[in-house]
UniProtKB/TrEMBL annotation:
The lineage of its organism: Bacteria, Bacillati, Cyanobacteriota, Cyanophyceae, Pleurocapsales. This is Uncharacterized protein.
Length: 147
């Protein structure tokens, strides 16, 4: 016998079925909204502002680069035309990024393992998302800054 699981992508309709709502379990239906850090009631509707702030697990886990993507490693000491071209051969999600302010500001969502195009030698270290760019967009990246 095989079992299949279906993932629902339907948005909540009110606070009661929103994952960001912490229910106080009192007889008045009160709780805490983690989106806005304030008191809320179960019957409050899921508004357009809630929808804009709602992070679905599919949105969080969407990567900019996939396996097989051509990327260039950003090197501030070289001109963009001299940056080495790599192929993405692996990726891993950083689940610790959203734990506190320090990790949010200093880490990226994704880390990538790269391979050179010529010899397909895989690098031994993971490269952060902000250290690479799309192969086609390397000419618009300025790592030194304008000012």
């Amino acid at each position: 016998m095989t079992y299949t699981t279906q993932k629902t992508t339907q948005l909540p309709t009110n606070c009661a079925n929103c994952p960001q709502f912490h229910n106080y379990r009192d007889n008045r239906g009160g709780g805490w909204c983690n989106f806005y850090d304030r008191f809320a009631k179960e019957h409050h509707p899921f508004t357009h502002d809630c929808k804009l702030n709602y992070l679905d697990s599919e949105d969080i886990l969407r990567s900019e680069h996939e396996a097989g993507s051509l990327v260039k490693l950003i090197d501030s000491h070289k001109d963009h035309s001299q940056w080495t071209t790599y192929v993405v051969v692996g990726k891993k999600y950083n689940p610790n990024r959203y734990q506190n302010t320090k990790t949010f500001l200093n880490q990226t969502d994704w880390y990538y393992r790269l391979a050179t195009i010529e010899k397909l030698e895989v690098t031994q270290q993971w490269v952060a998302e902000d250290e690479i760019c799309h192969y086609d967009q390397a000419d618009i990246i300025n790592p030194i800054g304008e000012f």
